[in-house]
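Incident review: delayed structure delivery

Summary: a single-chain prediction request sat in the queue longer than the usual turnaround. Root cause was a stuck worker, restarted by the on-call engineer. No data loss occurred. The affected request and its eventual output are reproduced below so the record is complete for anyone auditing the incident later.

Affected input:
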Amino acid sequence: MNEPRKRITQRIRLEPAQQSQLVDIQRRSFLRAGLTVGAMSMLTGCNLQDGDQVDKVLWAMSRWNDRVQAWLFNGQKLAPTYSKAQLTNPFPFNAFYPEYNVPEVELSDYRLAVSGLVRDKQPWTLDALRKLPQRTDITRLICIEGWSAIGQWGGVPLKTFLEYIGADTTARFVGFKCADRYYSSLDMPTAVHPQTLLALDFGEVALPPDYGYPLRVRVPTKLGFKNPKHIVEIFVSNENPGGYWEDQGYNWFSGI
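Output delivered after worker restart:
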C-alpha cells in the first residue's frame, strides 16, 4: 500500500529589493481593480514594463473614478436598514492585524482630539459625546474582500458633532486618526450624511474593543475600510488626508 506523501513546505525569504518590487505590484493590482474596462483600455498605449508610467495612468484614472462617484453621490439617500432578526451573529472581526493586536485604550485617559478647520478645538471625553443627540441604525457593513455583515450601531451623527465643534462644513474633507495607527478620511457630503455615525455602541452595549472601542466611524454608504476604528482624532481640511489602504491603491471614494 502506498503511504501518503508528506507535504514539504519551504519558506521563501525575499530580499529588500524584491519586497519593494512586490509592494509595487500589489499597489498596481489594487488600482487596476478599481478601473473600468474603458479606463483600462487607455493603458494599451503604455509600455507595461514602465512601472512609473503605468502608476501615473492608474492613479489618474482612480482619481477620475473618485470624481464620478462623488458627482453621483446623493447625500439624502439613505442606505438600507434591517430588523434585529437579520443581525449577523457573530459579527466578524476585521482589521489589518489579528485580534490579539487590538489596541488597549484606557477610558480614564481617553480624549478625542479635534483639529483643523474648526472653531472649538477642545478635546472630548466619551461622557461628553454621550450627552449629544444619539441615533441608532441597523445597517450592512460591506467589506472590499467580498463579505458583508449586518450590525446595530448607535452613536452621535457625525454631522451633529461637526456642528457642535463649529466645523467649516464648506471644507472638503474630514480626516480620522486611530489608536491602531490606521487613518482614513471622508468627503464632506458623506461626513454630514444622516447615517454617518461616531459609533459609541454596538448592539445594546458599549462598543467592544474588537469593533472599535472607544469610538469608531460607521459609514453605511461606504465600503468597510472607510469605517475606521479606535478614533483618537478628528480633523477638517481642504487637503485630502488619504488613508491607510487608499494610499496603497484602494479607490479613495469607495461608495456603495
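Verification: Helices lie at 16-33, 37-41, 51-72, 126-130, 158-164, 188-191.
Action items: add queue-age alerting; document worker restart procedure.
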